[in-house]
Amino acid sequence: MRRLTYILFFGLMWTQGAYAETLSLSYDGTFLGRVKATDIVSSLQITINLDEDLPVSTHVMARFQNNTPYQRLPGGEWQSWSETRSALVDAGFVASDDGTLTFEIVDEAVSLGFFPVVFTVAYTLENGRLKSGYMVIDQ
Question: Which residue, 122, 133, 134, is CA-closest to 56?
Answer without folding.
Answer: 122
